[in-house]
Structure formats: structure tokens, C-alpha cells
Amino acid sequence: MSSKTGSITRQRLVSDIIVNGVLLFIVLMWTIPTLGLLVSSFRTRFDIQTSGWWWILPHREWVTIETLAPDDTLDPDGIMEIYGVSGTFEEFRGGVLTADGTKVTWVGNKRLATLQVQERKWVMRTDFTLENYGQVLAGKSYEIKSADGTTKIVQGDNFTGSFLNSLTISIPATVIPILIAAFAAYGFAWMSFPGRKPLFTIVVALMVVPLQIALVPILKDYVRLDLNGTFLAVWLAHTGFGLPLATYLLFNYIKGLPRDILESAFIDGASHFTIFVQLILPLSIPALASFAIFQFLWVWNDYLIALVFIGAKPDVQVLTMRIAEMVGSRGSDWHLLTAGAFVSMLLPLIVFFSLQRFFVRGLLAGSVKG
Amino acid sequence: MQPIADEKVRAGGFLEWLALTFGRILVSLVVPVVTFAILIWGFRWLRAATPSGITEKIVVSIVAIVWGVGGAGILYFVSNWLIEKLSPVWVKRLQPFIFVGPAIAVLAWYLALPTFRSFWISLFDRSGPTTVALSLLFTAPKEYFAQLSTNFIGFGNYVSVFTERTMITAFRNNLLWIIFGASLAIIFGLLVAVLADRSRFENLAKSLIFLPMAISMVGAGVIWNFMYEVKDIADPQIGLLNAIWVALGNRPQAWTALITQPWNNIFLIIIMVWLQTGYAMVIFSAAIKGIPEELIEAARVDGATEPQIFFRIMIPYITGTIITVSTTVVIFTLKIFDIVMVMTGGQFSTHVIATQFYRQAFTSNNKGLAAAIAIVLLITVIPVMIYNLRQFAEEEAF
User: Fold this and answer.
1) Domain spanning B158-395: which superfamily?
2) Three-point CA angle A279, A201, B393, nearest 5°
3) Which of A20, A335, B19, B377 could form a disulfide with A45 if both were Cys (CB 3.0 to 4.6 A apart)?
4) Candidates B205, B328, B398; nearest CB to A367
5) CATH of domain A160-365
């Protein structure tokens, strides 16, 4: 009996280890890419370009312990003997290992050179800085030293303006569709009017319509109305594309509220408008919050709609456009790209972590968006 | 109280009644006009605003947000206030349209009508349909149709969509995205959901895998561009993938560009898997928690092994959820755009349907072909639309 329980416990332990081990592996695979970017955003430009971000962890690296001028007696064209090891000029250029594990390297050309004696040591590259963020946010200028010794001053990217634009687009583009959808959901759920069912059927049908279908005609309208590049244009576009799902989700929620609340309010002489504003909206806060997070993340992270309806107007550009542009034009300026990407992720991550519960609820309630 | 007031009105006579009614009508007119005037003035101000400094920009942002959010609220409030001035019968008749009207109008403008308009545009060549005055139809019908049919090429654009080499590449790539991307996201999502359900670290693990859902595809592009970064073989590799690859004794690779096509697409697809697994996991996790504990316990008592429990009980139990999640992920995959745009811009044979749409519509300026691509995209999701409608009809929510 006891041996049997023992084997069961052991089996449990083994399966526990397998489960958690595989889980840990997947979690690491999912986390490391973001972690690498986050770490790099705090590293100096030089460090990012010359070493992997994992070099902040303890690792063995050749560290120069002594630098000296080569002896005059050495002949670079023949076999040289330095520090008890011998080799040709080419061999020393690549570094020659000595018996005690140090490495001797010839730095420079045959006539003008220094000798470096290096030792393999445990080191960490922990030269962290906030400068990347400073450059990205304030558009501070920074110096680049070229190989020939000249320095040139390059202007960093200003993300503060784009951040404000993203915010100015995201907040109304979240609130307006929710307001319109909530009114409509109430209307569909609790009011009777001709065409109620066919109209709602259309709402359901529109849920999966790809927004690509609308871009060409709507852009035409915007050009005619001279709306292109305005905040209103982008708000309305996001409203239109988010509305079917919002209406459907809120309809399901409002429909589920107990009907007697409504009836007793009617008996007290309240109008639909009063009931909606003072009773239904406060009661629907969980559903409104779920969809609000959904829509906010969608709008904040959107690239296509901004690209089409804001276009090349630099003073209205949002963060995603700015970063995409930077990837194209300064794809190897990793100190700016990493920091910029994190600036753009900051708000969504805060929203995500503080309101994850609502977000998950929203996802579970309905998840097909056009 | 009431009769006395009534008598007062009657005593005042016709003139007072007239003044009262007139006043009411005047107020009913003035309030909406003033509202509209303020809103339009705000719009003009915002459009003309060219903030130079950061402080000015903050001010403009705040004004814009207040104008947008407040404006939407005020429009509802004022129109409802107007309606409620009418007699109760008319209130009952018209109020529903105050509630659903704006939604219907926006949906019509942004989704319903564009479907037909895009279809119309797709029947014309790159110059697009010409606008002809409708009056011409009555004065000179022949002339009207002649003008209307300039640039008309019928289904020519659709032939191009399915025969042009670049389009076929895009379709092939989208197929790769669906085959590898959607299925991997679903498999990983299911795997994590099942494993996390048995782990003590469930919440932490799920949060971390879910986290990419909050990251934009552009941001994800930067993250993975950094993972794939390639340096000369003589220099230390700063991209993790190449660092590992070189440590294993290989030459560094430009993963999204120069390796054998079409397999470079896989490295873009990985990004989508990374983004979408969290979504699949959350939905599956909820579904798995819905499986009755007794069912699994009973199977265990009967001697079922863990794989048997997974394949014979869990999978059949959550089949419905798997179909829903697959549909959503496939629709998402069909419209993938940002990742390709940021990573390669469609170079190295990585174009997909949505990037071709964008290229045709806004770079090559061939609106007809672009509209045809959009219509094809729409047709592919019609089965899902029908399924949704059927579900909705069965629910009998009405």
C-alpha cells in the first residue's frame, strides 16, 4: 500500500516537473524578445552596436590588462617573439595565446602599433543609461564619431509630439464608438420601432466585413470634404470600423439586464433618455470597460488606418507611423528604435496590466472583428 | 395647483399663448443652431491650428479631445431634447431613431455602402469611374451611359487579381500564413492553456504569454527585427537568433530577406504566432475550465492516460471553441498587414493580400485593382458572416 502511494507521489512529481518545465520554456520564448528590447533601450549606443544585450549577464570576455609599445628590435616582416610566444605579423594581428592563457594582440599597422595583453575574465556590461529615452522624447541631438575621427551631430527623433497625437486620436476614437454603440444597443434591446430586426441583422453581418473594403471610397469622401489629415477623420473611421462589434457586445449585455428595473423607472415617469443615462450606463460599466480597453488598444496600435487617413502629414503622425518610418530610415539606430518602441508600448502595457481582467472578459464575450 | 395655472394661461388669452409657442419654437431653433455653430467653429479652429511648441500642442490636444468627446455627447443630448418637446406619441415614434440613428448612419457610411462602392470601382480600370450628372440620364440617356462606361473593364480587374504573378505570390504567402501562422498560434495556445491549468504558476505564465496582445504589430516588428538582426561574420552578433546560429558554427543569415524563398516568410509568420497565441490561450483556458471536473476524474479512475484524457475528452468537449478561435485567427491572418509592411515592405516575395491592396490603392494608384482585391477579401469571409447570422437567428434574442 505504502509503496503504491509512493509511486503515485513520484509520478505526480515527474509530471509536475514536465508540466512546469515545458511551460517555463514557452514562457521564456515568449518573454525574451521583449526583454531583449527593453534591456537594449537602456544600453549605450556603443554597447548595443558592439555586443549582444545578453552581455549584461556575467560572461567571459577578453579584457585588456596591459597596453605597451612594441620593442624596436621586433621585425614585423619575420617571425617575432613576444611574451614567450612567437608568430608572424598576421598571427599576432589575430591574437596569439600564451602558455598562461593570456592573449597578445598586435593593434595597428606594421610601423605604428601597440601591443595589447588580454586576459579572459568574468565581466558584465552594465553601463546603463537613460539617454536613449531622452533623445527619443526630446529630440536631443547626439554626436557620432566616424572612423576617421571626425564627429557629426545628428538630430534625434521627437516622439513627444507623436505621443500626444496618438493620445488625441485614441481617447475620442474609444469614447465616441462606445457612446454611439451604447445608445444603439439600448435602442435595439428595449425600444420598439419599425425595421428593428433587419437593422440589427445588418449590424451582425457587418462584424466580419474587412475594413479594406472601405478605405478607397472613404478616402475619396474625405478628399471631397477636405477632412483628410484631421483628427475627426480618424475618429470617425475608427468609430465606423469598431461599431458593429461594440453594438453587438453591448446589446448582449444590456439585453441581459433585469427588465423590471426598466419598468419601475417607467412607472416613475422617467423617459428613455433619463433611464439610459442615469440607470443603464452605470449598470453597464463592466461591459463598457471591456470594450473600451479593446478599442483603445486597437486604436493605439493601429497602423493602417492612420497611414491611409493621416498620410504624410508630419504634425498629426501617430507613434506607430513614426516607428515604422524609423525602421525604414534608421533601421540600425537601435538605441533610438528600442527606446522609441518602448515609449509606444508604455501606455498599452499599463492599461493591459491594470485592467487585464476586463480585457479578458471582453475577449471572451465576442471576438470577431472586421 | 394645476387648475389655477391653467386658468392663468386661459386668462392671458390668445396673445400669450402665441408668444409662448413662438418662444418655444424659437428656443428649439436657437439651441441646435448654436450647438452646430460652436461645433463647426471648434472644427475650423482645430483644423487651422498649427501648434509650434510642446505647450501649444498639449493645449490643442486637450481642446481636440474635449471637442470630440463632448461634441458627440452634446449632439445626442440636444437632439433628444428637441424630440422630447414633441407630443408623447411622436416622442415614442421618433426617439428610437435618436438612439439607433447615428449608429446606422455611421455603419452605412463606413461599411455598408463602401461594399457596393468598392464593387463599382472594381469594375473600372486605374482611372476609375467618371462622375456623370444624373440629369443627363433624362436629357440624353445614350450620352449618359456612354460617359458612364468610359474606363469600364467589367471583371478585368478580377482576372488580374487571379493571374498576375505578384498577386499569386501574395495568395501563396497568405496561404502560408494561414497554414503555419494560424495553426501554430492555435496549437501553442491550446498547449499553454492545458499546461497552465495544471501549474501553480498559472496566472504568471498566462500573463506573460498574453502580454504581446498589448503590443502593436509595428512594435512587434521592431522587437523581432532586433531578434533577427544580422551583422558581418567578423563582428559580434547583436541579434539573438544569429548569435545562437553562429555559436553553432554557421554563417550569419538575413532571416527575412536573403534565405531561400518562400521560407523567409516563416520568420514573419513567427511574429504573428507570438502575438496571437495569447488570444487563443485565453479563450481555450476558459473553455477548459468549463469541463466538469468529475468527467476527467472518472476517466482517470477508469485508467485513462493523460494523452487519452486530452484527445478523447478535452478536445471533443471544446470543439466548438476551437472552431471559433480558428475562425477568428484565420480572419485576422487574412488581413495581416502591419508586420509585413514594417519588416520587409513586401520585398523578397513577402507581399500578402493586404499589402498588395495597399500598394495598388495608394502607391501604384490603381484603385480599380485595389477595390477588386478588397472584394475578394470580402468574399472569403462571407461563409463566416453567414455562420454568424445563423447563430444570431438561432439565439432568438429578438
Assistant:
1) MetI-like (1.10.3720.10)
2) 95
3) A335
4) B328
5) 1.10.3720.10
